[in-house]
Design brief:
The protein has 6 helices and 44 strands. The protein is mostly beta strands. Strand 7 and strand 8 form a beta hairpin. It is flat and about 110 Å long.
Length: 666
C-alpha cells in the first residue's frame, strides 16, 4: 500500500513546485521521512514514514524556462526569460542569477536577473558579433535559503544554443505519388520537412503534360514536421492519360531564406477500375465504406466464390434483427461506358421464416444520390438471392453453392451501393464485384514505320512486315493486359490489331518488330475503350514514343532498326550478326535484312552501325540496367570495323568481338 501514498505525495509536491523534476521531488520527500523500526532502511518500514508537509516546507522555488533556440543573431543580446515561483519563501533578488559562457564548456560569467513583473525574471547574454556556442543556467534562492536551478542538475547539465549564420537547406522527405485514378482526383501530396532553424513554408509547383501553365499550392503544416495538401485542381480539369509533373519546394526561417526542392516527379491519371475480391484482411477495402447504425453486420469472411481465391463480404442476416438496413458502398470508380456491366457472385441459403433482401443502387455523381438498379430477395418459398435450399443453421457456403449475377449499368455510373435489409433469415455472401465490358472487341489501327523499311523517295515501306503490339498497365510493374499481331501495310503504314481480351482502361502501347528496338507509346498511357475504335500514330512526331525514342527520317518519325537479337540495345553483337550474313551473301526473309530488299549487305550494316555508335537502346517506363550504354560503347570499340573503299570488302566478326576472317573479292 505504500506506492499509492508515495505517488500521491509526489503529485502534491509537483503541484506546489512544478519547476522541480521528479528526481528532485523524490530526493526531498526521502530526506524528510521519519525513520521507523531498525535504524536506517529496512524491509519492514523501508525509508520510513513520509511527511509530505515537512517535504513541502523543504521545497525550493520553481524555475520555469524555455531554453533558447539556435539563432543567426551574432551580435546579441540574447534575452533569457524565466518564471520563478516561490514555494515556501520569497525570492531573493540578490541570489537570482544567470550563469553563462561563450565557447567554453565551463561557466565563466554571471549576471543578476531582474524582476520585470510578477514572477517574471529576465537577464541577457551579450553577443560578440562572431559565430559562438553559448552555455548557461539559471539559479535562484528564496528567503529561507532554499535553492533551485534550471536545468535542475546544473552545472552538470547546461542549456546550450549556437549563434551562427545559417546556410543549411531544408530536408524534404517524400514518397513520390504513383498513378492516380481520375475518380479520386485531386490527389494529396504529403511530405516531412525539417530544418535546423525551422520551416517558413513548403509548397508544390506542378503542371499537366507540358510546362505551358505552371501552378503552385501551399502545403499545410498538419503536425510537427508533417506537411500536406491536395492539388489545386478540379476533377474535371484532368483526363485519363494526362501526365502530372510536380516538385516540392521548402524555405527555412533563416535570414537567407535557404531553399531546397525535390526532383521533378511525375505520375499518370488512370482509370479507377472496380473489381474487388476481398482478399485483404482489411475490411471495408481501401476507399470502400459502410452505412450503418449500432452493430455493423457487414464483415469479411474467409470463404470465396466457387472456392477460388480467399475472402468475401458477408451480411449476417442470422443475427441482424428484422428491419435492420445496412449498406456496403464501393469506392468511386471511373464512369461506366457503353456495354459496361456489373458482375458479382453471391451465396445465400434461406431460413424457414423471414424474407431477406439486397438492393443494388447506382450513382452517377460519386454517391451524392442513388437510384435502384436491382432488388434481390431470399425466402424459404423461393427468391432471386437463393443459391441453395432452406437451412435451419447458420449458412456458410460450399464451392458449389454460389451463383453469378450481371446487370447492365447506366452510362456514367461511378459508385455502387449494396443495401441489405434483414428479415431475420440466413447469411448472405457477396464476392468478385467487378465492372466488366461485354462489347465485342474492335480492331485497333496502329500507324508506324521502321527506320530500315521506310523509303524517303517513295514515302512507302519497302515491304509489308509483321509487328506485335501489347497493351500494358501504366503503373509498375507494367503488366501485359493483352496483345495482338498485325501486318504493317507498305502504303498506309498501318496495321489492324485486335486486342480480344482487354477491358476498357488506360494503357501503354508497346510495339515489337523482329529487328527493331521495342518502342512504347508516350508517357501517361492511352485511353482504350473496348468496343470503340482505337488508333495510335507513331509517325507524326518523335514525342509519340516514350522518351521520344525514335529517329526522324525525312518527315516521318521511325522506330530504330538494328536490334537483331532483340535484347533492347543496338550494339556490336547486332552489327556482327549483320556483317556475318553479308559476308555470306545471304538472301531472303532474314532478320539481318533491315531495309527489306531481301539481301543482307552493307546498307543494313550501315544502319545498325550508325545506331550502335549513337548508343541506341530501348526507352521504357520499366527500370533498366544503368551500365548498358557503357558496356555497349566498350563492345563497339572492341569490334570497330574498318571498311575499304571497295563495298565488297567484308570482315567477319564473332560475338566476342574477335576478328576471325578477312576476305576481299574482286
Amino acid at each position: 500500500m505504500a506506492s499509492p501514498h508515495v505517488a500521491g505525495c509526489i503529485a502534491l509536491l509537483k503541484q506546489a513546485a512544478p519547476g522541480l523534476t521528479g528526481k528532485q521531488l523524490k530526493a526531498i520527500l526521502l530526506s524528510t521521512t521519519t525513520d521507523l523500526g531498525t535504524a536506517g532502511e529496512d524491509n519492514t518500514y523501508g525509508k520510513g514514514l513520509v511527511d509530505v508537509f515537512r517535504a513541502y516546507k523543504n521545497l525550493g522555488p520553481s524555475v520555469q524556462h524555455t531554453p533558447l533556440a539556435n539563432t543567426e543573431n551574432l551580435s546579441g543580446p540574447y534575452a533569457v526569460n524565466s518564471i520563478i515561483l516561490p514555494t515556501t519563501g520569497g525570492i531573493n533578488p540578490s541570489q537570482t542569477r544567470l550563469f553563462w559562457s561563450r565557447n567554453n564548456v565551463s561557466i565563466t560569467d554571471s549576471v543578476l536577473m531582474t524582476n520585470s513583473s510578477g514572477n517574471n525574471w529576465t537577464a541577457s547574454i551579450p553577443g560578440n558579433g562572431l559565430t559562438a556556442t553559448y552555455r548557461y543556467y539559471i539559479k535562484t534562492t528564496d528567503s529561507s535559503g532554499k535553492t533551485s536551478k534550471s536545468p535542475a542538475d546544473a552545472p552538470a547539465t547546461l542549456h546550450l544554443f549556437v549563434a551562427q549564420a545559417d546556410n543549411q537547406k531544408p530536408v524534404i522527405a517524400h514518397t513520390p505519388l504513383t498513378a492516380q485514378p481520375k475518380a479520386t482526383w485531386p490527389a494529396t501530396v504529403s511530405a516531412v520537412v525539417t530544418d535546423n532553424l525551422g520551416i517558413d513554408s513548403a509548397w508544390v509547383r506542378w503542371y499537366k503534360n507540358s510546362p505551358t501553365v505552371i501552378k503552385q499550392f501551399k502545403l499545410i503544416n498538419t503536425s510537427g514536421s508533417s506537411f500536406s495538401a491536395a492539388f489545386n485542381s478540379l476533377n474535371a480539369e484532368v483526363n485519363v492519360g494526362d501526365q502530372i509533373y510536380y516538385r516540392i519546394i521548402a524555405e527555412d526561417n533563416s535570414v537567407a531564406g535557404n531553399k531546397d526542392s525535390t526532383s521533378l516527379y511525375s505520375f499518370a491519371i488512370t482509370e479507377q477500375l472496380l473489381c474487388e475480391g476481398f482478399t485483404s484482411a482489411t475490411f471495408a477495402p481501401t476507399n470502400w465504406s459502410f452505412e450503418f447504425t449500432g452493430t455493423n453486420y457487414w464483415t469479411r469472411n474467409a470463404v470465396s466464390s466457387y472456392g477460388a481465391g480467399a475472402g468475401s463480404a458477408k451480411f449476417d442476416f442470422w443475427n441482424a434483427s428484422s428491419g435492420t438496413t445496412q449498406s456496403l458502398v464501393t469506392l468511386a470508380f471511373s464512369a461506366s461506358k457503353p456495354n459496361d456491366t456489373l458482375r458479382f457472385d453471391h451465396a445465400y441459403a434461406p431460413y424457414t421464416t423471414g424474407v431477406d433482401s439486397m438492393t443494388i443502387e447506382v450513382s452517377t455523381n460519386g454517391g451524392s444520390t442513388y437510384s435502384n438498379l436491382a432488388r434481390l430477395y431470399g425466402a424459404a418459398a423461393g427468391g432471386t438471392l437463393n443459391t441453395t435450399t432452406t437451412l435451419t443453421t447458420q449458412f456458410t457456403p460450399t464451392s458449389a453453392q454460389w451463383a453469378t449475377k450481371k446487370y447492365a449499368l447506366p452510362l456514367g455510373t461511378n459508385k455502387i451501393k449494396f443495401r441489405a435489409r434483414s428479415g431475420f433469415g440466413n447469411n448472405l455472401y457477396v464476392d468478385s464485384i467487378c465492372v466488366v465490358n461485354n462489347a465485342a472487341a474492335v480492331a485497333s489501327t496502329i500507324t508506324l514505320a521502321t527506320e530500315g523499311l521506310y523509303n524517303t523517295s517513295t514515302l512507302r515501306l519497302n515491304k509489308r512486315d509483321t509487328v506485335r503490339a501489347y497493351l500494358r498497365n501504366t503503373s509498375s510493374p507494367f503488366n501485359v493486359i493483352d496483345s495482338g499481331k498485325g501486318v504493317v501495310d507498305s502504303v498506309t503504314h498501318t496495321a489492324q490489331i485486335l486486342f480480344a481480351n482487354a477491358p476498357s482502361g488506360t494503357y501503354y502501347l508497346h510495339i515489337k518488330h523482329r529487328n527493331s528496338i521495342e518502342t512504347w507509346s508516350k508517357a501517361g498511357g492511352e485511353s482504350y475503350n473496348r468496343g470503340s475504335a482505337f488508333s495510335y500514330d507513331f509517325t507524326t512526331a518523335l514525342s509519340q514514343a516514350y522518351g521520344s525514342n525514335m529517329i526522324l527520317k525525312g518527315s516521318e518519325s521511325c522506330i530504330y532498326s538494328g536490334d537483331v537479337n532483340q535484347d533492347g540495345v543496338i550494339d556490336a553483337t547486332d552489327v556482327a550478326a549483320i556483317d556475318n550474313d553479308a559476308f555470306g551473301f545471304l538472301s531472303g526473309y532474314l532478320v539481318t535484312d533491315l531495309n527489306g530488299d531481301n539481301f543482307t549487305d552493307g546498307t543494313d550494316f550501315l544502319i545498325a552501325d550508325n545506331n550502335a555508335t549513337s548508343l541506341v537502346s530501348k526507352s521504357t517506363p520499366e527500370p533498366g540496367p544503368v551500365v548498358a550504354r557503357v558496356l555497349r560503347q566498350v563492345n563497339i570499340e572492341k569490334t570497330s570495323v574498318t571498311r575499304s573503299n571497295n563495298d565488297n570488302d567484308k570482315r567477319k566478326i564473332n560475338q566476342s568481338g574477335e576478328k576471325i576472317q578477312t576476305e576481299s573479292k574482286d
